[in-house]
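Quick one before lunch.
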Amino acid sequence: MGRLIFLIFFAVFSIGGELDRCDSCHLQKAPPFNVIYRKYLVIYSSKRRIEENMVNFLTDPSKQKGVFPKEAKKIFFPKEHPLYDRKEAKEAVRELIEREDLLKKVRVTKPRE
Ligand code: HEC
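Model of the heme C complex:
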């Protein structure tokens, strides 16, 4: 039992990384990452381009670069997005993509024989 509790404890603390600090907003007032990820997926298609564009946004969140309409942002999120350096942004975005990867959420059932 003690070992189990230790394992759970360890697992909980080793999961989150860079993305933890994003969750303070993105689990509350900011758009959730699943919504953001879908939007990026529709626009950019490949994981490489999603990563590239999210990192660009986080390192220079000028209003022009985001995937949300500028006008909507002005009304709902008038504050500028927090700025991150490339290394932080890359790590967070990789975790984000890993977590939101849609293919992992699809359950593949074996065809009947
Ligand atoms: C202070 C709160 C806050 C924190 C911290 C924060 N975000 Fe955001 N984020 C927002 C809000 C509000 C929006 C929606 C408005 C916008 O796009 O600027 C947003 C939008 C985004 C978008 C979509 C941008 C677009 O329009 O294309 C991405 C991607 C994103 N955040 C990633 C992150 C990541 C990764 C982190 C952590 C490294 C993070 N955010 C930390 C508040 C936050």
